[in-house]
From TrEMBL:
Superkingdom of the organism of origin: Bacteria
Protein name from the UniProt record: GTPase Obg
Organism phylogeny: Bacteria, Bacillati, Actinomycetota, Actinomycetes, Micrococcales
Segments for region (Disordered): 446-481
Biased composition (Basic and acidic residues): 452-481
Subunit comment: Monomer.
UniProt KW keywords: Cytoplasm, GTP-binding, Hydrolase, Magnesium, Metal-binding, Nucleotide-binding
Organism: Microbacterium faecale
Pfam families: DUF1967, GTP1_OBG, MMR_HSR1
Cofactor(s) the record lists: Mg(2+)
Residues that, per the record, bind Mg(2+): S173, T193
UniProt xrefs under HAMAP family: GTPase_Obg
Sequence similarity: Belongs to the TRAFAC class OBG-HflX-like GTPase superfamily. OBG GTPase family.
OCT domain segment(s): 354-437
Length: 503
């Protein structure tokens, strides 16, 4: 059964914006009350929050699909739709949010930091908000846009001051249990620790946290064992403690060779830009399990060689509680020195949003394929306007044409080489139409019933042949009608002669 998760993929879906309302005020003695359709509410956002009380991503491992509330629909009498409730997802401090390609979006390394992972859709405007001096009673409203939908990857990197690293069964879990209140699983077989354990150590007036990282083996930085999964938990640590097993029974192993292997794996692990390489950080060496007589002799034998490498060495026994006080006070001094030298950062903005393309509002790209050449329009505004348009309403379609023309899209199409009748696509095949530059922006000056736009009716002047055919058809119909009337008159006359009635 999974009890600890430090990486998970979330499938997010922000709330959809509510549709605007088309309504006209109806009151007694007020036949021209005017439009009173309300706006739709915005969809709820999905926000990721760094919470100190959360320690694992296990909840999202079991239920990775998360969605926020949709916005409410607008109603008549200027009643606006309710805004969708945002969804806040609590994650441990130290969680890194990435996109599916691995690019880092935000590092939630401080308590209370918030990240807008999925923005809710925009509510549509009602016809009351769309009314203007020339369009007094719009017969349409804007639809709500869908919220952002996609995947984000959460990766937990433990936030601790000191990391205990070493081979499996070197005694790291026993050591952290002896110096803190942490109670990790302890057993006499390799890879007992399957997830990092955190403990708080009090040494005099200093308090710091220690992380027990799962055992490393040769090739851990290349994916062998469990090292590659958990080496990232060492990235944020101030100091490293090499825990060396002096009582190991494995042939070919000794504290010096173990130290060289761990140093090599730490050197091969790439840290993010701006961080100090792992081997350049303060390091101490613990010769563990010296309560065993043979281990004590081996520790005394190799101590001089390790100190010659520039390390400060401590002989420790978690069982006999030997050397723990000296080790904890030495670590406290290292941590306090690092905290004193750390620059004081100004308070940062807690809410981080996805950057938007601020260079151009839209772009026209000429594309081609098996279906022929067409022109694709990309941009946040045109694509959002397409989602907001009710294509069953001619007036709404005309309003979209007005907005696109005022944005300057027609001029860009001309520059791109588009000709009347060319195929134009807005967004990812959201809307495909034949471009007609003769459809000028004049909807506000036309007089038509609500919901209709005379420019889209397709009226055209008939040709001479069509008028002549229509004239002959009317003349033929009249000739047939006169012939039928003459037959009816003769039939009535014959009937009168048979009955002797006067004609």
């Amino acid at each position: 059964m999974v009890t600890f998760v430090d990486e998970v993929t979330l499938h997010l879906k922000a709330g959809k914006g509510g549709n605007g309302c088309v309504s006209v005020r109806r009151e007694k003695f007020k036949p021209l009350g005017g439009p009173d359709g309300g706006n739709g509410g915005d969809g709820g956002d999905v926000i990721i929050v760094a919470d100190p009380q959360t320690t694992t991503l296990l909840t999202y491992h079991h239920s990775p699909h998360r969605s926020s509330e949709n916005g409410g629909f607008g109603m008549g009498d200027l009643r606006h739709g309710a805004r969708g409730a945002p969804l806040e997802l609590a994650v441990p401090v130290g969680t890194v949010v990435k996109d599916p390609t691995g690019q880092t979006l935000v590092d939630l390394d401080e308590p209370g930091m918030r990240f807008l992972a999925a923005a809710g859709g925009q509510g549509g405007l009602g016809n009351a908000a769309l009314a203007s001096q020339k369009r007094k009673a719009p017969g349409f409203a804007l639809l709500g846009t869908p919220g952002w939908q996609g995947d984000v990857v959460l990766e937990l990197k433990t936030v601790a001051d000191v990391a205990l690293v070493g081979f499996p069964s070197a005694g790291k879990s026993s050591l952290i249990a002896a110096v803190s209140a942490a109670r990790p699983k302890i057993a006499d077989y390799p890879f007992t620790t399957l997830h990092p354990n955190l403990g708080v150590v009090q040494a005099g007036d200093a308090r710091f946290t220690v992380a027990d990282v799962p055992g490393l083996i040769e090739g851990a930085s290349e994916g062998r064992g469990l090292g590659l999964e958990f080496l990232r938990h060492v990235e944020r640590c101030t100091a490293l403690v090499h825990v060396l097993d002096c009582a190991t029974l494995d042939p070919g192993r000794d504290p010096v060779s173990d130290l060289e292997v761990i140093r090599s794996e730490l050197a091969n692990y790439p840290v993010p830009d701006g961080q100090v390489p792992l081997l350049d950080r303060p390091q101490l060496v613990v010769l563990n399990k010296v309560d065993v007589p043979e281990a004590e002799e081996l520790a005394a034998f190799v101590r001089a060689d390790i100190e010659a490498m520039g390390y400060r060495v401590f002989e420790v026994s978690a069982v006999a509680r030997r050397g723990l006080r000296e080790l904890t006070f030495a670590l406290a001094k290292v941590v306090e020195e690092h905290r004193a030298l750390a620059p004081v950062e100004e308070s940062r903005e807690r809410i981080t949003i996805r950057p938007r393309d601020a260079e151009r509002e839209f772009a026209v790209v000429k594309e081609g394929g098996s279906q022929g050449t067409f022109f694709r329009i990309r941009g946040s505004k045109p694509e959002r306007w397409v989602h907001q348009t009710d294509f069953k309403n001619d007036e709404a379609v005309g309003y979209l044409a007005d907005r696109l023309e005022k944005l300057g899209i027609e001029n860009e199409l001309f520059r791109a080489g588009a000709e009347p009748g060319a195929t134009v696509v807005i967004g990812d095949d959201d809307m495909v139409f034949d471009w007609d530059p003769a459809l000028t922006s004049a909807a506000e000056l036309t007089q038509a019933p609500r919901g209709m736009d005379p420019r889209l009716e397709g009226n055209r002047r008939r040709t001479t042949t069509e008028r002549r055919d229509a004239y002959h058809a009317r003349q033929d119909a009249r000739t047939i009608e006169r012939a039928l009337e003459e037959e009816r008159r003769l039939a009535r006359r014959d009937e009168d002669e048979d009955t002797g009635a006067p004609a």
